[in-house]
C-alpha cells in the first residue's frame, strides 16, 4: 500500500533540510534571456560603429566609411525587425549623422521619437538632421528640447539654435542665450572657431538694440584674424544703430574699395545712400553691383534707385529681372505692382498683384500692397475686402486695421476710420501711423461736426486729436473750434502751447491773438498779432493780421488806428469779412468816444459812416445801437425833440444791450441838457429806484453834474448860498474834483472870503487854468498888484487851454503898456501835464 503524496510545503522543507546536510552546494550559472534578432543586430551595429570611430580617429577615412555603412545597414535591419526599438533608432541616428545621410535619419528616427518624445538620444540626431534638411519648423521644437537639457555631448545644438535665432527668426535674446550657452560648454580644442560665435553674438545684440554689446562681440570676433568683410559690416551696422550714418557709409565705402568683388558691402552702401537721399552715389553702387554679378539683390537695388529717380518703367524692368532670378520673391512682386501703378497702369498693377496672390504667394505684405494699390486706383470696395483679409491673417497686429483706416479715410467715412485706428492702437498702443491718422480723422470729423452746429462734439474730437498729435496745426484746429464754442480762456491756453511748438507759424500767432482778445487781454492780443505780422508770408496774410490788430486796437481805445486798418482791408477775403462785420462797430465806438468829449457833430458823422458801412437794418441790435448813438449826438447838438424821437425808436422794445432803466436815464439826460434841471433830477431819481451795480458810478457822476449845473445857475444869478450848497453836494460825490474845488472857491470869493479863495486857487493853479485867470483878476482889482496880475494872465495864456485868451491877452498888454511892465527874459512854461479836469469859466 503506497503512502499518500506529502504536501508541497513539507516536501520543500525536506529538500531544504537535505541540502543543509549535504554540505556546500554548487551555484547554478546565470544565463541572460536569449537576444531578439533586433537586439543582436544592434549589438553588431554598435561593434561596427566602434570600429568606424577607431578608423576615423586613425585617419583611415575609407575604412571608416565602410564600417559606418555596415553599421547603418545593421541598425536599419534592426529597425526593420523591431520598428519601435530605441537603441536601433539611436544607433541609426548617430551613424546617419556621421555619413550626412540626414534624409534617412529623419525618415527612420521620427516614428520612434514620436513614440518616445522624452528620449534625448533620439531627439539629438533627429533635430540635427531636420535642421540640415532645412525643415526648420519641425527641427526647432526638437532642438529646443535638447537645448533645455543642456548636456555637453549635445553642444552643437546651442550653435545651430543660436545661428537660426540670429539669422532666420531675428530673435536677439534667444540667439544670445544659446550662443552664450555654447561658449560656456565648448571644449578648449574648439576655441579656435569662437570668432564665428562672437560674430553671431554681435548680430544677436544688434537685434536686441544693444550697440555697445554688439560692438564688443564683433571686436572679439576680429581678434587674431585677417580683416573679415562680414565682421566689418557688423561694425557698420553698430554705427548705423548709434546714428553715426556718415561713419557707417565711410566704413562700407572702404570695404567696397578693398574688396571690390564682395557684393554685400556694395548693396548695403547703396541702400544707405538711397535712404540718405544721395541718389547719384546710390546709382553708382547699384550699377556696379549689377555689373559684378547681376544677382537678384543687385537688380532690386537698381530698381529702387530708378523708382526714386521717377523712372518707374526702368524700375519695372529691373524688378522683373529679380523675378526671373527668384520667381517667388514677394518684395519683387510688390515692387512690380508699385512700378506699374506709378506709370498710371493701375489695372495692370492690380492684375499683376492679384495673379501673385492667386499663385499661392500668401504673404502679408503682398496682400497689404494689393489692397493699397486698389485704394490708390479708386477701387475702395476691393481695397477694404483685401485689407480685411490682412486682419484675418494677422489678428494680433495693427497692420490690417491701419490699412482699413486708410481705405475709409480715402472715402471720408470718418466714423469707420476712427474705429479702425482705435482698434489698431488697442493692439499696438504706440503705433505711430495709427496715432497720426487717427488724429487727422478726428480733425476731419470735428470740422464736419462744427459745420453742422455740433460744436461740443467737435471740441471733444479735437481734444482727443491734440492728445495724439501735439502739433501746432492740431493746436490751431482745437483753438479755432474752442473760439467757436466761446471757450476763450481754454483756447488761449491751447494756443499759448501751440505757438511754442517748432513748426508754429503766423496762423498760430493769429489765432492766439483772437483767443487773447476774446479772453479780455487786448494788449497781449495786439502783441500776438504783431508777431503774426512779422511772420506773414504774403500780402493776404498781412491783411488777415491787420484785421485782427484792428479789433485789438479798438478794444484798447485806439479807434482811429483801428478804423485806418478797417477802411483798407486789402485783398484777403477773410480780412474783408472781418471788416464788414466790424467797421460799423468801430465807427460807433468812435462816435461814443466823441460823445464823451462833447463832440456831437463828429459823433453824428461817425454814426452816419456806420450806417453806410451797414448796421443790419433799423430793427437789428446794431441798428438800434446806431440810432441810440445818433440820439446822443443830436442831444449834444441841442436837437432835443429829434433826439427824443430817436431814443424812443431805439429803445422800444428794450434791446439786449440796454438796461431796464436806460430809457429813464436817457430822458433824464435829455432834460439835463435842455437845462430842465428839476425834471432831470426827478427822472434820475426814478431811474435809480432799482439800483444796477454797474450804473453806480454813472449815477453818481450824473447827480454830481446836476448839482454842479444848479450851482452854476445859482452862482450866475447871485444866489451864493444856493451855489455853495450845490457845489458842496457835488464835491461830496467827487471829492477829488479840482474843477469843483475851484468853483467852490469862486463862491467863497464872492462871499467875502477872498483869502480862502486865493489860497485854493494857488493850490490848483497848475491843474485848472482858470485859477491863474482868477488870481490875475484878484491881483488887478483887489490887491492892485499889476505885476502879479500880468504874471497870472501870462500863465493863463501859456496853459494851452484858455477859452478867454483874446480878452486876457488884451488885458495883459494894456496893463503892460500903462504900467511899463516888460516881458520876462524867459517865457513861463505851460503845465507839462495838463489836467483833464474842466471847470466852468468862472471869474469873481
Automatic annotation (TrEMBL):
InterPro entries with a match to the protein in the record: TPR-like_helical_dom_sf, TPR_rpt, Ycf3
Highest rank taxon of the organism: Bacteria
Region spans: Disordered: 32-61, 823-844
Positions of TPR repeats: 296-329, 364-397, 398-431
UniProt keyword terms in alphabetical order: Repeat, Signal, TPR repeat
Signal peptide region: 1-28
Composition skew (Polar residues), residue ranges: 828-844
Entry protein name: Tetratricopeptide repeat protein
Taxonomic source organism: Archangium lansingense
Top-level taxonomy: Bacteria, Pseudomonadati, Myxococcota, Myxococcia, Myxococcales
Amino acid at each position: 500500500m503506497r503512502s499518500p503524496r506529502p504536501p508541497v510545503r513539507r516536501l520543500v522543507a525536506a529538500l531544504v533540510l537535505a541540502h543543509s546536510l549535504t554540505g556546500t552546494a554548487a551555484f547554478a550559472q546565470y544565463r541572460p534571456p536569449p537576444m531578439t534578432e533586433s537586439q543582436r543586430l544592434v549589438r553588431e551595429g554598435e561593434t561596427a560603429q566602434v570600429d568606424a570611430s577607431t578608423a576615423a580617429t586613425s585617419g583611415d577615412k575609407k575604412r571608416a566609411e565602410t564600417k559606418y555603412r555596415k553599421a547603418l545597414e545593421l541598425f536599419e535591419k534592426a529597425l526593420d525587425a523591431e520598428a519601435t526599438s530605441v537603441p536601433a533608432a539611436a544607433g541609426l541616428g548617430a551613424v546617419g549623422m556621421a555619413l550626412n545621410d540626414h534624409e534617412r535619419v529623419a525618415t527612420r528616427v521620427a516614428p520612434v521619437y514620436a513614440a518616445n518624445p522624452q528620449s534625448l538620444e533620439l531627439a539629438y540626431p533627429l533635430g540635427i538632421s531636420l535642421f540640415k534638411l532645412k525643415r526648420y519648423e519641425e527641427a526647432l521644437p526638437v532642438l529646443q528640447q535638447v537645448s533645455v537639457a543642456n548636456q555637453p555631448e549635445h553642444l552643437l545644438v546651442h550653435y545651430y539654435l543660436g545661428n537660426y535665432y540670429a539669422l532666420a527668426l531675428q530673435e536677439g535674446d534667444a540667439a544670445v542665450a544659446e550662443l552664450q550657452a555654447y561658449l560656456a560648454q565648448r571644449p578648449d580644442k574648439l576655441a579656435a572657431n569662437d570668432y564665428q560665435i562672437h560674430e553671431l553674438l554681435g548680430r544677436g545684440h544688434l537685434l536686441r538694440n544693444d550697440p555697445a554689446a554688439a560692438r564688443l562681440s564683433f571686436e572679439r570676433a576680429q581678434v587674431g584674424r585677417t580683416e573679415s568683410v562680414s565682421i566689418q559690416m557688423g561694425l557698420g551696422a553698430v554705427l548705423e544703430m548709434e546714428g553715426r550714418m556718415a561713419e557707417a557709409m565711410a566704413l562700407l565705402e572702404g570695404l567696397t574699395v578693398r574688396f571690390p568683388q564682395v557684393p554685400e558691402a556694395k548693396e548695403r552702401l547703396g541702400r544707405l545712400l538711397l535712404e540718405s537721399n544721395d541718389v547719384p552715389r546710390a546709382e553708382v553702387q547699384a550699377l556696379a553691383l549689377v555689373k559684378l554679378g547681376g544677382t537678384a539683390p543687385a537688380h532690386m537695388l537698381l530698381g529702387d534707385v530708378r523708382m526714386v529717380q521717377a523712372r518707374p518703367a526702368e524700375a519695372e524692368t529691373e524688378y522683373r529681372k529679380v523675378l526671373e532670378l527668384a520667381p517667388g520673391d514677394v518684395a519683387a512682386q510688390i515692387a512690380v505692382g508699385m512700378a506699374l501703378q506709378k506709370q498710371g497702369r493701375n489695372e495692370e498693377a492690380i492684375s499683376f498683384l492679384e495673379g501673385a496672390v492667386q499663385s499661392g504667394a500668401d504673404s502679408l505684405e503682398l496682400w497689404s500692397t494689393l489692397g493699397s494699390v486698389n485704394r490708390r486706383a479708386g477701387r475702395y470696395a476691393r481695397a477694404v475686402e483685401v485689407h480685411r483679409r490682412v486682419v484675418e491673417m494677422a489678428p494680433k497686429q495693427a497692420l490690417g486695421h491701419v490699412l482699413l483706416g486708410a481705405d475709409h479715410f480715402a472715402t471720408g467715412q470718418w466714423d469707420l476710420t476712427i474705429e479702425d485706428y482705435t482698434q489698431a492702437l488697442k493692439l499696438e498702443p504706440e503705433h505711430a501711423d495709427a496715432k497720426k491718422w487717427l488724429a487727422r480723422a478726428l480733425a476731419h470729423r470735428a470740422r464736419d461736426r462744427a459745420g453742422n452746429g455740433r460744436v461740443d462734439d467737435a471740441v471733444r474730437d479735437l481734444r482727443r486729436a491734440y492728445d495724439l498729435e501735439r502739433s501746432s496745426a492740431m493746436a490751431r484746429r482745437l483753438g479755432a473750434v474752442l473760439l467757436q464754442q466761446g471757450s476763450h480762456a481754454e483756447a488761449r491756453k491751447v494756443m499759448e502751447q501751440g505757438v511754442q511748438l517748432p513748426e508754429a507759424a503766423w496762423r498760430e500767432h493769429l489765432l492766439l491773438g483772437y483767443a487773447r482778445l476774446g479772453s479780455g487781454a487786448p494788449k497781449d492780443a495786439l502783441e500776438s498779432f504783431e508777431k503774426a505780422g512779422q511772420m506773414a508770408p504774403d500780402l493776404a496774410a498781412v491783411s488777415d493780421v491787420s484785421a485782427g490788430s484792428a479789433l485789438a486796437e479798438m478794444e484798447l481805445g485806439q479807434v482811429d488806428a483801428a478804423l485806418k486798418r478797417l477802411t483798407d482791408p486789402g485783398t484777403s477775403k477773410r480780412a474783408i469779412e472781418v471788416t464788414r462785420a466790424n467797421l460799423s462797430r468801430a465807427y460807433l465806438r468812435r462816435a461814443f468816444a466823441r460823445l464823451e468829449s462833447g463832440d456831437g457833430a463828429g459823433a453824428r458823422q461817425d454814426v452816419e459812416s456806420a450806417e453806410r458801412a451797414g448796421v443790419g437794418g433799423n430793427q437789428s441790435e446794431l441798428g438800434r445801437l446806431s440810432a441810440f448813438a445818433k440820439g446822443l449826438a443830436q442831444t449834444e447838438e441841442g436837437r432835443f425833440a429829434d433826439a427824443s424821437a430817436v431814443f424812443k425808436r431805439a429803445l422800444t422794445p428794450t434791446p439786449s444791450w440796454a438796461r431796464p432803466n436806460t430809457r429813464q436815464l436817457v430822458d433824464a439826460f435829455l432834460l439835463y441838457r435842455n437845462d430842465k434841471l428839476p425834471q432831470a433830477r426827478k427822472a434820475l431819481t426814478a431811474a435809480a429806484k432799482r439800483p444796477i451795480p454797474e450804473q453806480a458810478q454813472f449815477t453818481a457822476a450824473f447827480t454830481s453834474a446836476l448839482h454842479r449845473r444848479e450851482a452854476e445857475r445859482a452862482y450866475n444869478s447871485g444866489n451864493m448860498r444856493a451855489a455853495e450848497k450845490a457845489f458842496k453836494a457835488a464835491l461830496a460825490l467827487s471829492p477829488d474834483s479840482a474843477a469843483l474845488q475851484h468853483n467852490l472857491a469862486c463862491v467863497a470869493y464872492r462871499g467875502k472870503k477872498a483869502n480862502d479863495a486865493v489860497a485854493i486857487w494857488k493850490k490848483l493853479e497848475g491843474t485848472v487854468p482858470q485859477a491863474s485867470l482868477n488870481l490875475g483878476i484878484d491881483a488887478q482889482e483887489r490887491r492892485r498888484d499889476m505885476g502879479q496880475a500880468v504874471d497870472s494872465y501870462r500863465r493863463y495864456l501859456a496853459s494851452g487851454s484858455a477859452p478867454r485868451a483874446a480878452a486876457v491877452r488884451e488885458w495883459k498888454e494894456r496893463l503892460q503898456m500903462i504900467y511899463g511892465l516888460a516881458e520876462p527874459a524867459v517865457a513861463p512854461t505851460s503845465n507839462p501835464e495838463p489836467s483833464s479836469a474842466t471847470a466852468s469859466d468862472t471869474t469873481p
